Description:
Shape: elongated
Number of strands: 0
Low-confidence stretches: none
Largest sheet: none
Structural class: mainly alpha
CATH topology: Methane Monooxygenase Hydroxylase, Chain G, domain 1
Distance between the termini: 34 Å
Number of helices: 3
CATH architecture: Up-down Bundle
Number of domains: 1
Mean pLDDT: 80
CATH class: Mainly Alpha
CATH superfamily: Metal-sensitive repressor, helix protomer
Amino acid sequence: MVSPASKPIDDLRKTVNRLKRAQGQLAAVISAIESGADCRTTVTQLAAVSSALDRAGFTIISSAMKGCLADPGTSTDKQPLSVDELEKLLLALA
């Protein structure tokens, strides 16, 4: 069973892993463009990068929302996010 304290660390690790995969995918897109690869393959890889970045952003915002809802006084941010700020961040990903 995962303790509540380790949950944010697990979320962070998963997000970092997702971003590292996106980094590798982006390198593949750049390489494909430079080598003149098929347009379909390049665009498919680019879509995968975009999706991975979006999911990472949503995960980060979700973790912040969970933290604020669970106990606003224990936020690890220097300045806790307001509901309006969370909403703006979420809409920035849309």
